[in-house]
Amino acid sequence: MAYVGGERTHQGCVLCAIGNGDDDANRVVEQAELTFTVLNLFPYSSGHVMVVPRRHVADLVDLEPAEAAAVVEGAQRAARVLREALKPDGLNVGANLGTAAGAGIADHFHLHVVPRWSGDTNFMPVLADVKVIPEHMDQTAATLREAYAKLTR
Question: Strands 111-116 and 49-53, how do they pair?
Fold first, then answer.
């Protein structure tokens, strides 16, 4: 788990660094004009992605109309890709605005798209504050990149 204990390789906003960095190393699965989509480093479930506007902006209300539309369109593409590639039973889509609302990265707005399967909760988060992900994130990223490529063909 090098990503948990590893040293920071960026200065400033982690999401800005991810959007301008190495897609494979950062598990970016889509680059678009106004957004990028990246696997969440601490996922709730396999395939948990975040759609991130390129411009550093903290709050939903500060997005320009074109950016807001691009984030929603990115979430739509993510939903299509996740449904095609991972076959979830459902999806959660949402944002946490501010640390009091649960935002782990409160200074750069992002929209979560989380695939869900019937019965996907288990005792691990309850008893041990641990989440079990059944596939390595690099494999999930490769699967989603392939699905994005099919979507744009």
Answer: antiparallel
